[in-house]
Amino acid sequence: MNIRRTSLIVFLLALAVLPLLPVPEFWITQANYIGLYALVALGLVLLTGVAGLTSFGQAAFVGMGAYTTAYLSTAHGFSPWVTVWIGLVITAVFALVLAWVTLRMSGHYLPLATIAWGLSLYYTLGNIDALGKYDGLLGLPAINFFGTELRSGRSFYYLLWVIVVLASFATLHLLDSRVGRALRAVKGGTTMAEAMGVNTFRTKVMAFVIAALFAAVSGWLFAHFQRTVNPSPFGLNKGIEYLFMAVLGGVGHVWGAIVGAGIVKILEEQLQVWLPKLMGSSGNYEVIVFGIVLVLVLHYARDGVWAFIEGWLPPVKRKVDWLDAAPLAEQTKPPQGELVLDVQAVRKQFGGLVAVNDVSFQVKAGEIVGLIGPNGAGKSTTFNLVTGVLPATSGAVSFRGQRIDGLASRDIARRGLSRTFQHVKMIPTMTVLENVALGAHLRGSRGVAAAMLRLDRAEERSLLREAERQLKRIGMEQYLHEQAGNLAMGPQRLMEIARALCADPALLLLDEPAAGLRHKEKQALVEVLRQLRSEGLSILLVEHDMDLVMQVTDRIVVMEFGTKLMEGTPSEVQASPAVRAAYLGTEH
Ligand SMILES: Nc1ncnc2c1ncn2[C@@H]1O[C@H](COP(=O)(O)OP(=O)(O)OP(=O)(O)O)[C@@H](O)[C@H]1O
Description:
Layout: H1 3-17, H2 25-50, H3 58-75, H4 80-102, H5 109-127, E1 144-145, E2 148-149, H6 153-175, H7 178-187, H8 190-195, H9 200-226, H10 236-249, H11 254-279, H12 285-300, H13 304-312, E3 339-350, E4 353-364, E5 368-372, H14 379-386, E6 394-399, E7 402-403, H15 409-414, E8 417-419, H16 432-438, H17 448-452, H18 457-473, H19 489-501, E9 507-511, H20 519-534, E10 538-542, H21 546-552, E11 555-560, E12 563-568, H22 570-575, H23 577-584
Parallel strand pairs: 5-10, 5-11, 8-9, 9-10
Antiparallel strand pairs: 1-2, 3-4, 3-6, 6-7, 11-12
The structure holds adenosine-5'-triphosphate.
Adenosine-5'-triphosphate is lined by residues 350, 353, 355, 373, 375-381.
Organism: Piscinibacter gummiphilus
Protein name: Branched-chain amino acid ABC transporter ATP-binding protein/permease
Domain ABC transporter: 341-586
């Protein structure tokens, strides 16, 4: 048995036996608070650590769960087992609205909006008569668990920690799934994820809602643990503290949430005892210490405490369980010679600059077309117009007879057009296999619930099988379990091609695939491209390496200053004085 599994079992056993030991009640209370906090921090692992979205407003969602159950159980006699669901629904609605409004906007809108949300809920709760204003509500019932009232800290402990452990495993399962890969892809910007067919907005909203729901469950438990609620634990300060726990523990790691919650709770307790003694007066001095610790952590240990623990553990090795998985369905491919891509007088203006000036060209099934030109000629912009990254100012782009200009990248990807990037875009902390499996996102359909409950395994095995098949197709099977971030530039670019192939495209768009490659790697790339063409794939290739372009392309479109200079076979282009002049920068 490996050390990871052993450590996990030891941890779970320790959790299970703690209340049975003759430890002081105070320990149990501490452990309960750690569990309550860990549940909120767990949501932040998904939201901030994995999806890269910062929220200071989680305490407000805790308050929502707590106050819903407090009010309904005291004023209307609802059972906590009913109020938990009502709290979750109310929280989901608020989280959806908040996410809907703020997540479309980039930059600092979300953190700012969550600060506003944290502040406003606190003052709202404190001003509603029915909720007891700042005094809050008293006399909440204890949770009744199959006839047993969970009144003592020890009995409450089990319900709480079972929920925390289940939520941790559900989060781990989610991260190791189709949706989890999409969520990780969102962090580095939306372009790559969208090109792989991920609806990045929906994915972010999903993360926000899940984090809010975890917080609401924590609030529900908190309310019935304390048996009283008031607004102060749900204010902005606490929201910042939750974020601190997640960052300190290791914001990208599920177990970091528990570690962070544990450290903060114990530290807080100790500091509250010692600091007033040291300072000679009472006050919230621990907040100052937390601030300093946070700055130090962000400076010296960005990945938090868990990263250190992780460093001691052996690397996770994925079990190969997909060899007999059902193959994914494939789209019917266009017959050789059929018009695949038709670019008609496409134009892009950036203010006064015409980056692409009424350019037209076509790509037929089974051919490799090169798009070349000096720096700044407009190749990448043309590429982005075709793939939906940029909207065209005018002109038309059709793919297999249907207009695709104006469509989102992910909708274009769905039609069978897949791409790589000039600067490799990948998830460095995932393995090569997982990165490539992201390319097959649109070929799967299982969502969050299936992933959390591990009901997505059959589909997941098929996706991984396909990823392995594509890696083998381009000769990269030896890198399957390597962390993508450890790869040299050549294999990284090949990995991007495998990822694009995983989408089962009819047309592959490669943006400077040979950039940064060594001679041998370029030769390998030439072989890969030829092989793909022989398998009937069409390829549009933007490339600066003339040697490679001349070796693999059937036709070449030359651009200069945003316009199409000429189009022809490699030998025609090589013989053209105009092309030579364009590259040498002389008049023609
Ligand atoms: N978002 C943008 N805003 C303003 N100008 C832009 C933008 N993107 C590109 N341009 C300009 O459009 C022109 C074409 O750029 P583009 O990147 O398409 O050229 P390229 O042929 O791909 O060049 P390279 O080979 O260096 O990648 C350049 O003058 C560039 O500065």
